[in-house]
Amino acid sequence: MNTLLEDIARVASIGVGATATMDLWLLLLQRLGVPTLNFAMIGRWVGHWGRGVFRHDAIATARPVRGELALGWLVHYATGIAFAGLLVGVVGMAWTESPTVTPALCIGLFTVLAPWLVMQPAMGAGIASAKTNSPGQNRARSLANHSIFGLGLYLAALLIAWISR
Question: Sign of the C-alpha dihedral, residues 10, 13, 15, 17?
């Protein structure tokens, strides 16, 4: 296989692995009764882009979009892959062969800016959940989720490096 394709496959695999790690965390939280992300709302938000609507007062009250749950999951995993690409873009491809935890956790924490500054305001929740009933709890959950994602970047890279040897 071409080296570029191998690199792309490695980064994509790390992104999928990190996102799946976060999903396992969210599943655990859900089983413990903690409210978690509804990926249908992400799909609804993205689904309205084709109609030129990028911001909603409350995404839950916006008109549903056909296939919004599947679209939400697709966007969720594509974003995870993009964030893995960001990590490799910052630290270099060599990191994937000998991963360390610090850069992965730093990027994981950095990625919390996407929901805080883009998604939540566009979906009607305000910057960093400011317009929700419990912004502090929501911010803490976002930080925890993205920390787990960062840990997932490291663990996925470690697994893929081990398999590649």
Answer: negative
First vs last C-alpha separation in the chain: 16
- For 32-134, where are the alpha helices, taking DSSP H only? 39-47, 68-91, 101-110, 113-114, 120-122
C-alpha separations of 137 from 21, 47, 89, 140 in Å = 21, 28, 32, 5
Angle at 22 between CA 19 and CA 27, to 5 degrees: 125
Structure tokens at 30: 């859900």
Torsional sign, CA 149, 151, 154, 160:
negative
The structure tokens listed for 79 are 């974003």
Q: Tell me the pLDDT tens digit for each residue of 31-45.
A: 999 989 899 999 999
Q: Write the pLDDT tens digit of every residue in 86-109.
A: 999 999 999 999 999 999 999 999
pLDDT in tens, 144-162: 999 999 999 999 999 999 9
